[in-house]
Design goal:
Layout: H1 3-11, H2 18-49, H3 59-73, H4 76-84, H5 93-126, H6 133-137, H7 142-155, H8 161-164, H9 178-216, H10 222-258, H11 263-280, H12 283-292, H13 296-306
Subcellular location: Membrane
Keywords: G-protein coupled receptor, Membrane, Receptor, Transducer, Transmembrane, Transmembrane helix
Protein name: G protein-coupled receptor 31
Length: 335
């Protein structure tokens, strides 16, 4: 394939490696098949068992985190279909913008609630006696509603086809409206990077201080301390695995655009970015596992509700008023 035809395919949002994009589509379908029932089952527990809106814990944040992940999953089959057809975006303008809106709103919400949950855990562990605004607000849905509303205007700049096709700051030889286009492109890219870089810095700060605090504690159950350290470290690893690679790939792609690298290098950067964006969708599967099923109590509730045969002594008795399980001191924990 000639270089000119490769460049034209990139500009037209056509897949230059159709076999590879079909593989990307298969990965997204597998993610949906695994993550959708998991997220739906956890939402069922939050609503009908835990009654999260009455809880004084961070269940409200976790509910919104899982909700954001599940809404994002509904967009992936359309994305997978486009990849199978050899298109990097939907050819219908309305569907394309709706897809970008769903993808970035719900991914942004997922990152936001993940970050807020980590901040809440930071205050509980590092500053357990200190009063803070988050501790007061988390008892009501107002902060969750505020986060969703805040993300709406931040999502609007991404609802353009040239973002989905990675065509920001492209050189088209037309000098008219160049300044306006550059401002819009820069704003759009700033939103993309801000949604990831700032939460990552916050997560690193919270994780380091939580780990240091837990390691300095000389009293308490050492097993619980090790489990807590493992959990916050795992959260950091999951975030780094899902979101940092696509952020780096996006930065490389922008450099390739601005510096007008050879078409073949731009093509490789584009394909790599699309593949790492698919990797970021794995967050929809890992979030419930890390935040929900890593809790011994929640895991016991989950197993007693959906897989009671995995419990050694049968289902855990349930407190109907709170949705919490009542432990039996004579029985062992879940498998």
């Amino acid at each position: 394939m000639a270089n000119g035809s490769i460049y034209q395919l990139i500009e037209d949002c056509e897949a230059t490696h159709k076999g590879l994009y079909k593989f990307y589509a298969a990965v997204m379908i597998i993610i949906v098949m695994l993550a959708l029932p998991l997220n739906m089952s956890i939402l069922h527990l939050f609503i009908f068992k835990l009654k999260f809106w009455k809880s004084n814990t961070n269940n409200v944040f976790l509910f919104n985190l899982v909700l954001a992940d599940m809404l994002l999953l509904f967009s992936l089959p359309i994305k997978a279909y486009n990849y199978i057809q050899g298109e990097r975006r939907n050819s219908n303008d309305a569907v394309c913008k709706a897809m970008l809106f769903m993808l970035f709103l719900n991914r942004g919400a997922s990152i936001a609630f993940l970050t807020v949950t980590s901040i809440d855990r930071y205050f509980n562990v590092v500053h357990p006696g200190r009063k803070n605004l988050l501790k007061a607000l988390k008892k009501s849905p107002h902060i969750s509603i505020f986060i969703w509303l805040l993300l709406l205007p931040l999502t609007i700049p991404t609802m353009l086809k040239n973002f989905d096709c990675c065509n920001s700051h492209k050189s088209d030889g037309n000098q008219e409206d160049t300044l306006i286009k550059d401002v819009v492109d820069s704003l759009r890219e700033a939103v993309f990077f801000t949604q990831i870089v700032i939460p990552f810095v916050i997560l690193v700060y919270c994780t380091v201080h939580i780990v240091n605090r837990l390691r300095k504690k000389t009293v308490g159950d050492r097993t619980k301390l090790r489990r807590a350290v493992f959990l916050v470290t795992t959260v950091m690893v999951v975030f780094s695995l899902c979101f940092l690679p696509c952020t780096i790939a996006r930065a490389v792609l922008l450099v390739a655009r601005v510096q007008e690298w050879h078409e073949s290098y731009q093509d490789k950067a584009t394909v790599a970015f699309d593949g790492l964006m698919v990797l970021s969708y794995l967050d929809c599967l890992l979030d419930p596992l890390v935040y929900c099923l890593s809790s011994t109590k929640f895991k016991a509730l989950y197993l007693s509700t959906y897989f009671p045969f995995l419990l050694k002594d049968g289902p855990l008795p349930m407190d109907s008023s709170t949705g919490n399980t009542t432990p039996n001191p004579k029985r062992n924990n879940v498998i």
